[in-house]
Amino acid sequence: xxxxxxxxxxxxxxxxxxxxxxxxxxxxxxxxxxxxxxxxxxxxxxxxxxxxxxxxxxxxxxxxxxxxxxxxxxxxxxxxxxxxxxxxxxxxxxxxxxxxxxxxxxxxxxxxxxxxxxxxxxxxxxxxxxxxxxxxxx
Amino acid sequence: xxxxxxxxxxxxxxxxxxxxxxxxxxxxxxxxxxxxxxxxxxxxxxxxxxxxxxxxxxxxxxxxxxxxxxxxxxxxxxxxxxxxxxxxxxxxxxxxxxxxxxxxxxxxxxxxxxxxxxxxxxxxxxxxxxxxxxxxxxxxxxxxxxxxxxxxxxxxxxxxxxxxxxxxxxxxxxxxxx
Lengths: 138, 178
Description:
Oligomer: heterodimer
Strand content of chain B: 25-35%
Number of strands of chain B: 6
Largest sheet of chain B: 6 strands, antiparallel
Structural class of chain B: alpha+beta
Number of helices of chain B: 5
Radius of gyration of chain A: 19 Å
Order of helices and strands of chain A: HHEHEEEEEH
Order of helices and strands of chain B: HHEHEEHEEEH
Number of strands of chain A: 6
Helix content of chain B: 40-55%
Structural class of chain A: alpha+beta
Shape of chain B: flat
Strand content of chain A: 25-35%
Radius of gyration of chain B: 24 Å
Helix content of chain A: 40-55%
């Protein structure tokens, strides 16, 4: 009976610590900032800014977002998806050389920053599909 | 002894599952994925107009949104975007009545009082003399306690049909310079 009495609180503490650490390490070290930036960015072989912004807007709309703001000069688009929750996303583009664009997105889920790579991967997959269809003019 | 052990193990497992569930407040899996409904939603929210004048189409759209009582929050003509919203009181008389009756029995009856409707309208050239207009509506509803009770997209086809029929008329009027 004794080991259980010791293991239970230990396990609880460990799990709680793991959860808390996940929240905090966003601002703690430069390392995680670099990590965040890399999971939020993708390079596309595409040079037309306006086309890219319009495709991003169309992709967000396809995913059920309402556009909150768009600025061609700055190269940013923001939108929010509401489905019992609020998922707010800002996507920005900047040129990389003459033939490429870096697309960076960051998201906020309710009151939390999204630092999990999966949602970003899903967004970029959706955007790649939209760009492909755009190129094929379907 | 054996039974107590089982109960202890079960309790630990339940606690672990509860904590894991509580920690996973992340983005739902399907939030950023195309679903079979995406295409149907796009068809519902989109109409194609035979014109190559995107500016005029946006002008006509802004006119319709104003007709419907929306105020324009943001716009970016070069991306074909108009963002607008409206706040309305949605208190229903019968809700007030029910709340009065409920108060006699010391029961709190909450009902919807305020609604904010958000909409974004986007135009997109589709090639030769064709421009697609897509509009998406969302609404937020608060109750008497100022708690958010609704936070979702509006999916009623009637609303979209009504909007586009108004837009078709407005495009015609703008074309005629009325």
